[in-house]
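From the pipeline queue, job 12 of 40. The input is one protein chain; the requested action is below.

Action: predict structure.
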Amino acid sequence: MGITLLLAAAPATTLRAQMPPTTPDADLAAKLAAERPIASGSSYWLEELTWMEVRDLIAAGTRTVIIPTGGIEENGPFLATGKHNVILEATCPAIARRLGNALCAPIVKFVPEGNIDPPSGAMRFPGTISLSAATYEALLDDIASSLRQAGFTDIVMIGDSGGNQRGMANVAEALNARWKNSRTRAHFIREFYDPGWAATEDYTRRELGVDQTTDDGHHDDIWVTAMMMVTDPTQIRFEQRVDADLASINGVPITPLAKTVELGQRMIDFRADFAVEAIRRAIDRE
């Protein structure tokens, strides 16, 4: 008699008695404890890892996660509207690498950019996408709370745009008040966006040998352009600018390509080093 006939002939109560007891909670516990069947991938971006890889990294001591906030906004005639996100693609992994126990959450690409209707700020230009302050803060709160649920204990917020800063500060304060009896802390790192004019200008001239001699009047400068080029030169329309004899910003040439990419990498290294020091100070204070 085949297995199908045996199952059909047996009373349901008998079959249930013969099956090992199981519950949804037991099934979930087994899945959560299962061994990873393949070697781990490698990325500092949480979204590029499997859940098992994230689990194992947390268990091994990767307890810090960075929430980077960017934006979609008007950035002059040469730069893609996702300027801040392009910069964060290079800077967030550089920070995580230096920390040694950190991952980057997906970039928060939508942030306050002005009133939508009637439009203000960058919303007066096509292509900009804006959030209300309340929506932005609710989004950050949910993202941070999700990461806490996963097991991260130090949740760091950095923003590449000025309009992002107040919302991150508000959310970090609210989360820490709510989490005051837990081991998880939120850290808003203003220094990532604002390392200080004096420090930046001194580094630009003394270490990089770069001096912006003019102001082209665009929402752009050599730091922005060079850092974007590290990720993707097409996002600053490099070839088109060369063809149009517009391959400079604020009096600084952006050719040759390799030299400006190298410059952008040094700028990313500067920002990453500065941010890491600020993050470590913030974590040590808690």
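Job complete. The chain is about 50% helix and 10% strand.
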